[in-house]
């Protein structure tokens, strides 16, 4: 499954997982048009999470699209996907071709400026299966994604630019966490689309309550 990636691209992770960067997967003119239409057309929402008993807004906007039933739990909340837009479907198909894997959902993040961010986490939810391949597309402002190796504390910084595709695969989510730090440098908006494959969904209230 990841074999063509291994053959064609250099693995940027020094150990314990796979990380491939395909710079300018979309050339600037195409990336420009996606940036503008996704900004306009996706159902951007503020998510609230419970932190020490208080509800707080996460510092970014989000939207969740996918096949019916591809429910996903993030920020401690179960989410039902919105139906695919034709634009997201066409992007998905481009990403599937290079990844040689199908995706049934996409999480869209909008970082309005450098004050928006994402905290350190691993995409290791049960719904994603053991070694998920996650394809992450960037549009707009350049932002830094920082990986931290759990045991050695090694960090790995990757600059993500307009049109870049980053692929996380293998055992990466078991050993590394990642975050998108705030920065004073970023003035413009950045959109990130992370394509995922949900392999199992909560089937009973007991199961979803247990996670
Ligand atoms: O914005 C990014 O590049 C990271 C997004 C991310 O890690 C996620 O959605 O899980
Ligand atoms: Fe992530």
Automatic annotation (TrEMBL):
User: Is Oxidoreductase found in the keyword set?
Assistant: yes
UniProt GO molecular function: dioxygenase activity
Pfam families noted in UniProt: 2OG-FeII_Oxy_2 (PF13532)
User: What keywords does the record list, in alphabetical order?
Assistant: Dioxygenase, Oxidoreductase
Q: Which residues form the Fe2OG dioxygenase domain?
A: 102-199
InterPro entries according to UniProt? AlkB-like, AlkB-like_sf, ALKBH3, Oxoglu/Fe-dep_dioxygenase_dom
The UniProt entry, under PROSITE patterns, shows: FE2OG_OXY (PS51471)
Gene3D superfamilies membership: Alpha-ketoglutarate-dependent dioxygenase AlkB-like (2.60.120.590)
Q: Which PANTHER family match?
A: ALPHA-KETOGLUTARATE-DEPENDENT DIOXYGENASE ALKB HOMOLOG 3
**How is this protein named in the record?**
Alpha-ketoglutarate-dependent dioxygenase AlkB
Instruction: Please give the organism.
Output: Methylomonas fluvii
């Amino acid at each position: 499954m990841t074999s063509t990636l291994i053959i064609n691209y250099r693995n940027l992770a020094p150990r314990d997982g796979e990380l491939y960067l395909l710079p300018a997967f979309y050339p600037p003119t195409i990336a420009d048009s996606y940036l503008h239409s996704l900004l306009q057309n996706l159902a951007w929402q503020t998510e609230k999470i419970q932190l020490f008993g208080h509800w707080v807004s996460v510092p970014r906007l989000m939207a969740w699209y996918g096949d019916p039933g591809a429910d996903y739990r993030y920020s401690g909340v179960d989410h039902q996907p919105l139906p695919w837009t034709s634009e997201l479907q066409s992007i998905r198909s481009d990403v599937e071709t290079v990844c040689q894997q199908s995706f049934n959902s996409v999480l869209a993040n909008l970082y309005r400026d450098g004050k928006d961010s994402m905290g350190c986490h691993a995409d290791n939810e049960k719904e994603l299966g053991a070694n998920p391949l996650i394809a992450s597309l960037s549009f707009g402002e350049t932002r830094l994604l920082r990986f931290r190796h759990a045991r050695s504390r090694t960090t790995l910084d990757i600059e993500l630019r307009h049109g870049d595709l980053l692929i996380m695969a293998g055992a990466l989510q078991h050993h590394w966490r990642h975050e998108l730090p705030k920065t004073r440098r970023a003035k413009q908006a950045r959109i990130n689309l992370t394509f995922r494959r949900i392999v199992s969904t909560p089937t009973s209230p007991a199961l979803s309550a247990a996670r």
